[in-house]
Amino acid sequence: MKWRGYLTPVTENYLHAYGVGYISYVLARKFHVDSVKAFVTGTLHDLGGAVPADERVTVAESIGISLNDEEREVPLLVHAKLGKYFAQILFDITDEDMLNAILFHTTCIDRASDLVKIVFLADKIRWDRNGTPPYLNGLLAALEISLDDGCSYFLKWLWNSDLYIVHPYLSRSYGAYVRQQQYNPISLQDFSVLQGNLNENLVEKYYLHDIYQEFHRTFYHAHLASVLASKHSVNTEEAYVTSALVNMTNTIKDDELETIASVLNLNVQVPIRPQLTSILARDEYGITSLEMLKTLKSFPQIPSNHNSLLWVVAMSWICQKSIKCEVEDE
Ligand SMILES: [Fe+2]
Ligand SMILES: [Fe+2]
Q1: In total, how many domains does the chain have?
Q2: The HD domain covers which part of the protein (predicted)?
Q3: How far is the CA of 17 from the centre of ligand 2 (A)?
Q4: Fewer CB within 10 Å: N-end or C-end of the chain?
Q5: Residue 313's CATH number
Q6: Last residue in a domain, options 146, 179, 199
Q7: Which ligand gives the minimal distance to the CA of 123?
Q8: Mean pLDDT lowest for which of 3-7, 9-13, 163-167?
Q9: Which residues span the domain enclosing 257?
């Protein structure tokens, strides 16, 4: 991540979320894992971050999430368990693999599925701190060999850094991927799915409904775009990712755009938001497809060519806003 004083922390969080979703998608394609599932899981991995660190222990315990000593001492670690809970309760996700990928995104775990490893590593590739991660080149080289090599490389780096505390899951991961140690399967209790409705006070206090709306709209838009793309001979993968990413700057308010335009020297004669989205996709996420970048920059224009990526992305956007969508009924 580069330093950007012109974006709010909320927008930075969304950029991190979509960035991890995008890298998870890319890694999933590389390692033959369901890429849409990877995008959704990667995007939702930090849902627990909606609760500020100093309130996480109280909130987690109030909804029946069991914590260990390490999590009580370093509340930052609690966001993984809270995130899994929010994914279940807010997004109705029941897929254990997706829930585990959120639960283990900070530490990984021995015997992890490919999806768990992918979201774990995507979060490290698209870290949420300033500058380039010092391990990035080594991690990317290790990923050219395998996901396990990627896990091993990063875990070695992490183990040799200044770890304040070692979470039990991290200890098992290091043992498994670096030292090839065997462990008995982790207690099933750790994987249990909590039931029940989310307390309305929590929903309101932590803007969980807004977060749900934002991500749900993005996933639906991307889904519709890939359906539409398949009917109009447009690359479905580019349609899915591009449609998701046009939403990455949604949290920027209109009155913030002028300041951003002056900082980045953008052309104020044409819409600022699409220019910014395209620049962030290129510089932040490393997207090189000219068609995708051009589409992000031109959205939401509707071109006459129905077989273009821009037409698919723009039409699916209009469609996701209507209650009865005809794309899926065609
Ligand atoms: Fe996280
Ligand atoms: Fe993260």
Answers
A1: 2
A2: 15-125
A3: 7
A4: C
A5: 1.10.3210.10
A6: 199
A7: 2
A8: 3-7
A9: 208-323
Identify the pLDDT of residue 324: 55
Q: d(Cα 309, Cα 229) in Å, to the nearest integer? A: 8
Ligand nearest to the CA of 128: 2
pLDDT in tens, 165-200: 999 999 999 999 999 999 998 875 554 556 667 788
Res 17: pLDDT:
97
CA 180 – ligand 2 centroid, Å? 26
| Cα angle 86-245-21, degrees, rounded to a multiple of 5 | 45
Per-residue pLDDT at 197: 72
Q: Quickly list H helices, the chain.
A: 9-30, 35-44, 56-62, 69-73, 79-91, 96-103, 114-125, 136-143, 147-159, 168-177, 200-205, 208-231, 236-245, 254-264, 272-283, 290-298, 309-321
Which of 199, 220, 243 terminates a domain? The answer is 199
149 and 228 co-located in one domain: no
Q: Are residues 117 and 262 both part of a single domain?
A: no
Overall average pLDDT of the 206-213 stretch? 96
- Of 35, 36, 218, 190, which is closest to residue 107 (Cα–Cα)? 190
118 C-alpha to ligand 2 centroid (Å): 13
Give the total residue count for the chain. 330
Ligand 2 geometric centre to CA of 16 (Å): 7
